[in-house]
Amino acid sequence: MSFDTAGIRRGLKRVARFVLSVNWFRPIPDRLKLFVVARSGVCDWDWYARFIMRDPDALADAPLHFLRHGNVEGKSPSPLFDPAWYVQRFSLQASPLDALMQYVIVGDLIGLSPIPWFLPNYCRATSTVAVSPFKPVLGRYLRSYSTIGSPHPLFDQAWYLEHYPDVRTGGVNPLQHFLYDGIPEGRLPNPYFAPAWYLETYPDL
User: Helices in 81-185 by DSSP H: which ranges?
Assistant: First the structure.
């Protein structure tokens, strides 16, 4: 008697995709969900006040603003979580808060990416310190990027900080800087890859 391992693997992938497409967290009150994701460290309210509310002095009001407006408008309280990209990958019908809740509880643990430039398993594997598999590594990276591994094989964090001293002296998270400021300014993620040149050379992408 032989087993169709390829068929079993395909079946498990279908089950996993179905499970990930269901919004299991919809019935939970939004305030409780926000408490959970905020405790995980994946929220950056200073960033939210600056980039979403466009008011750096509104830091104290940022969580309530997200509950009342940002969540409805498809915004994220985390600079390294793209809710539109995340839900589209799994056909997940969920608000940004529900999607972030799924990522914090399930996604990070099984290695799902919150954005294309962050690979949880790679970050854990390249870390020189012990990282708990049961706490989102994204939260740890956002709080203290210098004490944990690299977020993505194409983003050379050490090189980026050395090559762009203004980022290093500014104390800003290097991946966050690259995504929101570095790419528009033409900065490189590593010494071998230029995103602007690549897109100009291959416009079909």
Answer: 83-90, 96-102, 120-125, 137-143, 157-163, 165-170, 174-177
Is there a contact between 83 and 109 (Cβ–Cβ < 8 Å)?
A: no
Q: Which two tokens stand for residue 51?
A: 């980039």
Q: Coil, strand, or helix at residue 55?
A: coil
Q: Which of 84, 86, 116, 90 is nearest to 14 (CA)?
A: 90
153-175 pLDDT per residue, tens: 999 999 999 999 999 999 889 99
How far is residue 66's CA from residue 201's CA, in Å, rounded to a whole number?
39
Question: Quick check: 55 and 49 in contact, CB under 8 A?
Answer: yes
Q: Where are the alpha helices (DSSP H) in the chain?
A: 5-21, 30-39, 45-47, 62-65, 83-90, 96-102, 120-125, 137-143, 157-163, 165-170, 174-177, 195-201
Tell me: pLDDT of 106 over 80.
yes
